[in-house]
Write a structure and sequence with these properties.
heterotrimer; A alpha+beta; B alpha+beta; C alpha/beta; A: alpha+beta; Arc Repressor Mutant, subunit A; Glutaredoxin; 2 domains; four-stranded mixed β-sheet; B: alpha+beta; Ubiquitin-like (UB roll); Alpha-Beta Plaits; five-stranded mixed β-sheet; four-stranded antiparallel β-sheet; 8 helices; 13 strands; about 15% helix; about 15% strand; globular; disordered C terminus; binds iron/sulfur cluster; binds FE2/S2 (inorganic) cluster
Chain lengths: ~170, ~375, ~450
């Protein structure tokens, strides 16, 4: 089974060191982020068990947390995940059109992944970018003021990056 | 230690004294009967329980002697401690009755109507609750939610659709077994009790989740006569058990033991032993001892819950206080739970005044004799 | 042009770095505060009248003075950066562009409260801001503002960033504490309050980002001076994040003396409604506060001008007023549908309910379903009354304020826009194609003659 390498273990130790002795469980959220980034963008049961072991807690404590928070993926996702906000302020600025456009263009509905495993479309609730609507989260950053053209160029950009990394 | 301070608290016009630190709910249970708010999630023997289901909401019309301001919102009586001079309204507050009816409706919203095939029928707290506090019919016109079925082993059966998320079973696993293997997964209206990976729950003492579950979400898989507890005869019995107290209730027909449970008190909770500890029972007693000759029978068990189990077959011999007609009258024909007559514990009321007949909250003026 | 206390330096080139921030007068508050001592700092904050900027508006100094100080038990300050209320993005702006301002405020506040380990609980989606903050903390450490024995004061001050993972509910302080402990974000049942038993059962104060940043100008200028800005109990300045149908969405610092009309139409702020459309409604303080039709927004029911401050926005109570909330100012133009907007909020709250208590867990989903049905023209007239009854049974009966937050928008939408809901029922075919429009929502309000 996959394990953290040395760099990741150093990061793990740094995260745990933020909390008092014996309160290492507190590092669970940040550590799950680390694990998700490390092991393919999602959390398998094995990954969660591994995290439980590292933090000396029961596996169920990890499952409970991982299923509660919306950012943890419990199923494999595409290489690039478009998380488009659909709450009020974004709706007022036409996020429905953007979602429909992506659906059209990539042939996937919200919650689905393209067959080549490249893109996942997900609708999410307010991400705190309401003034720059419509918007989506892509990896660690936000893409704001979305238009159809912008979506096109983001898709191209992702394809190019993927090709470059292969 | 210094002598424990006693606080005076008045609930539905009945005043009693309780030690400081007592919750409103426990104070009300001391008075008993209808004055005790229904509790679906609180379980006095489980630390940290309560506060979640909101069926026990009450109105605090006077905070305390020192600070008489009423509390702005209804409070969960199971998690609010009494203050000296506090005045609480439970069944005398229209606000409470209204909110409670709302809570009952919410709890039933997604609850399947499968009582006829449910093992818990006859001893289900939700059945009792809706009977006592609910309104007829539902205004919910959408599909009820469903869950993927999970197998949690040969001993315990989980029907997630029936769960009301009281968290009691989670506390049992945390506080009674050496390792918790199930918990609440997901969130919001999709929250569910599960083990994540199919796992069987077999830790010693885990069987107690069956006894604490207020509904039919967790039931005994080894129970050999499903569905209809009222055809069985509850008997108190004990055995010499190395792991637990061995004090149980057997559910028999003839000489056959169909089910073993802990002994429950009038609030549906596991009874306490002489030493004050709750009489939880171990898995061996619960699941493996299914012969009458495993046990020393003590005698028939008194069941004083009002639902089918007692109102039907056991009515005659379990010491149930039948509701008087007056309650039927004010409850539009339904029989509410009455376990004792308030007049027998309270000197506040003139016996000729029926509290429940007074419209709206009762006032001191309704009880003139008390004034002089 | 109103006075700026927080964002005055936001546009200085390179202000994100320690050097520029320091050159512009940064970290003076820490130097001053250490000389003043903890009690004096708390006094200044009390005098300033600063109210919590997260939504509830509770006086910050008072909150600080509640913290228990048992011998030998560490205390913690936690900064609530879990900004997730739809319409609100001011804390993000502040952390993104002025990270050192927050760090400075945190150091002063930690010193005042005696917190040797202070946490910034930031919403998980703000992933890149975690890096910005951690970088700022390291810069501050290099200059001995963070770390052991800061500025030779004998006080150790560590600041850690804790990243959440997507849960609005963690903005509620006890849920935030649970989450900080590595658990599900289930709000705790109170009492005990965090000031007595918070994170790891230690006394804890949880404050919003903007509140803690505001401590810097308060220390620099003195609480009394700070209190002179603004009006009545709305002292100091407030960050507003404006969005929806306006020309210039963004984050603005206001001094709470300007009118709502000025805020919406002046070029200094929102710059009016785009495409020459007219104002229909507005949610002035984040999705959970009551929505107001244009007429009641610009003027109170008494016909007086409504101002951008705590008191004026809530003038008229929930019947004809709203709330300052978290400062998420959402504007709807005449082409927007209130039913649809309310539906997205209901969906939001259903999605974000933790699921612990029954009214919120079950009620939010029920409201969402009914609103969707109405929006799609498949609703019944009785659904509107049912919605009203459901929200009424959620409000005040839940463990935490999320229940209220879910109930209020529905209540206000029905209260002020009932005819729009009914129109959806009576014109199901049209309702899916077009929008009800402005109707009379901007008509002048009838003010009863004064006696
Ligand atoms: S399974 Fe039963 S005991 Fe467990 S949370 Fe659900 S209703 Fe409560
Ligand atoms: S509503 Fe989309 S980011 Fe806030
Ligand atoms: S019994 Fe009090 S809230 Fe459930």
């Amino acid at each position: 089974m996959a394990k953290f390498n040395d760099t990741q273990l150093t990061e793990f130790n740094r995260l745990v060191s933020h909390y008092p002795e014996g309160k290492q469980k507190s590092a669970l959220l940040p550590v799950l982020h680390l694990a998700q980034d490390t092991f393919g963008g999602w959390l398998s049961t094995e990954t969660m068990d591994y995290v439980a072991e590292l933090l000396h807690i029961a596996p169920i404590e990890v499952y409970e947390v991982a299923t509660f928070y919306s950012m943890y993926n419990l199923k494999p996702v595409g290489k690039y995940m478009f998380e488009v906000c659909q709450t009020g302020p974004c709706m007022l600025n036409g996020c429905d059109n953007i979602i429909a456009y992506i659906t059209d263009k990539l042939g996937i509905k919200a919650g689905e992944t393209t067959p080549d495993g490249m893109f996942t479309l997900k609708t999410v609730e307010c991400l705190g970018a309401c003034g720059y609507a419509p918007m989506m989260q892509l990896g660690k950053t936000y893409r704001e003021h979305l238009t159809k053209e912008k979506v096109d160029s983001i898709i191209d950009e992702c394809r190019k990056n993927a090709a470059a990394n292969n | 230690m210094a002598e424990q301070q006693l606080f005076k608290v008045t609930i539905d016009n009945i005043t009693i004294e309780v030690p400081s630190g007592t919750t409103i709910l426990n104070a009300a249970r001391k008075i008993g009967g209808d004055v005790a708010p229904p509790a679906m999630c609180y379980y006095s023997k489980l630390q940290g329980s309560g506060g979640k289901c909101r069926t026990c909401l009450v109105e605090v019309s006077k905070g305390s002697e020192k600070d008489p301001r009423p509390m702005p919102k209804l409070v969960a009586s199971c998690r609010t401690t009494v203050m000296d001079g506090m005045e609480v309204k439970n069944i005398t507050s229209p606000k409470v009755l209204d909110a409670r009816a709302g809570v009952v409706e919410f709890l039933l919203l997604n609850h399947p109507l499968d009582c006829p095939i449910c093992d818990q029928a006859g001893e289900c707290h939700l059945q009792d609750l809706s009977y006592d506090h609910g309104k007829e019919g539902t205004r919910y016109e959408f599909q009820r939610r469903t869950f993927k079925k999970h197998d949690i082993g040969p001993y315990i059966q989980l029907h997630m659709t029936r769960c009301i998320l009281c968290y009691r079973c989670v506390y049992v696993a945390d506080q009674l077994t050496n390792k918790r293997e199930h918990g609440i997964l997901d969130r919001g209206d999709h929250s569910e009790i599960a083990t994540m990976i199919e796992k069987s729950l077999e830790n010693d003492f885990i069987g107690n989740v069956i006894d604490v579950c207020p509904v039919g979400a967790l039931t005994d898989r080894t129970f050999r006569f499903k569905n209809r507890v009222w055809f069985l005869k509850p008997m108190d019995a004990h055995r010499n058990c190395p792991t637990c107290s061995g004090k149980v209730t057997l559910w028999n027909r003839g000489d056959e033991v169909f089910r073993v449970t802990a002994r429950k008190d009038e609030w549906g909770e596991v009874e306490s032993l002489e030493d004050g500890k709750p009489a939880w029972i171990c898995n061996t007693c619960r699941f493996d001892k299914k012969h009458t000759n495993d046990w020393v029978i003590e005698g028939p068990r008194m069941i004083n819950r009002q639902s089918v189990i007692s109102a039907g077959h056991y009515q005659g011999n379990v010491g149930l206080n039948k509701p008087t007609e007056i309650f039927e009258a004010v409850h539009s024909g339904r029989h509410p739970k009455v376990m004792l007559d308030i007049h027998s514990v309270s000197e506040v009321n003139k016996p000729d005044i029926e509290l429940s007949l007074i419209e709206g909250p009762a006032h001191s003026t309704d009880f003139n004799s008390n004034k002089d | 042009m109103s006075q700026k206390l927080l964002l005055d330096k936001a546009h200085v080139e390179g202000i994100r770095t320690y050097d520029v921030y320091r050159r512009e007068g940064g970290y003076r508050a820490v130097e001053k505060a250490i000389k003043m001592g903890p009690e004096a700092i708390v006094e200044e904050v009390k005098k300033s009248g600063l109210r919590g900027r997260g939504g509830a508006g509770f006086p910050a100094g008072m909150k600080w003075s509640f913290i228990a100080k048992p011998e030998g038990v560490p205390r913690h300050l936690v900064c609530n950066a879990d900004e997730s209320e739809p319409g609100t993005f001011k804390d993000r702006y502040l952390m993104e562009f002025l990270p050192h301002l927050l760090i400075e405020g945190l150091i002063v506040s930690s010193f005042a409260l005696g917190s040797n380990a202070t946490y910034i609980y930031i919403r998980g989606e703000y992933a890149w801001i975690v890096d910005i903050l951690e970088h700022a903390i390291e810069e501050a450490r290099a200059h001995n503002f963070v770390g052991k024995n800061i500025l030779g004061s004998g006080f150790d001050c560590e600041i850690y960033v804790h990243r959440g993972a997507g849960a609005y509910i963690c903005g509620e302080e006890t849920a935030l504490i649970e989450s900080l402990e590595g658990k599900r974000g289930n709000p705790r049942i109170k009492p005990p309050f965090p000031a007595i038993q918070g994170v790891w059962l230690r006394p804890t104060v949880v404050n919003n980002v903007e509140t803690l940043a505001a401590v810097v100008p308060i220390i620099n200028m003195g609480g009394e001076e700070y209190a002179k800005i603004g009006v009545g109990k709305s002292t100091g300045t407030k960050l507003m994040s404006a969005c929806g149908n306006i020309n210039k969405p963004g984050v603005y610092e206001i001094d709470m003396t300007i009118s709502v009309e000025e805020f919406i139409y002046s070029d200094e702020y929102c710059g009016g409604i785009p495409n020459g459309k007219r104002l229909k409604a507005c949610i002035p303080g984040g999705s959970s506060v009551p929505i107001l039709p244009a007429n009641l927004l610009l003027k109170t029911a008494k016909g007086e001008t409504r101002y951008m401050n705590y008191e004026s926005l809530s003038d008229g109570g929930f019947a004809t007023g709203s709330m300052m909330g978290s400062g998420g100012f959402i504007v709807l133009d005449e082409d927007q549908c209130v039913v649809k907007n309310t539906y997205t909020f209901a969906r939001f709250y259903r999605h974000e309910s933790c699921g612990q208590c029954s009214p919120c867990r079950e009620g939010t989903g029920w409201m969402e379903k009914l609103l969707l049905r109405l929006e799609n023209g498949a609703g019944k007239l009785s659904d509107i009354d049912l919605l009203w009854d459901i929200q009424r049974k959620i409000e005040g009966n839940t463990i935490c304020p999320l229940g209220d937050a879910a109930a209020w928008p529905v209540a206000a939408a029905i209260r002020h826009f009932r005819d729009e809901f009914e129109w959806h029922v009576f014109h199901p075919d049209e309702a899916v194609k077009r929008n009800y429009g402005l109707a009379h929502y901007a008509d002048a309000i009838h003010v009863p003659a004064t006696v």
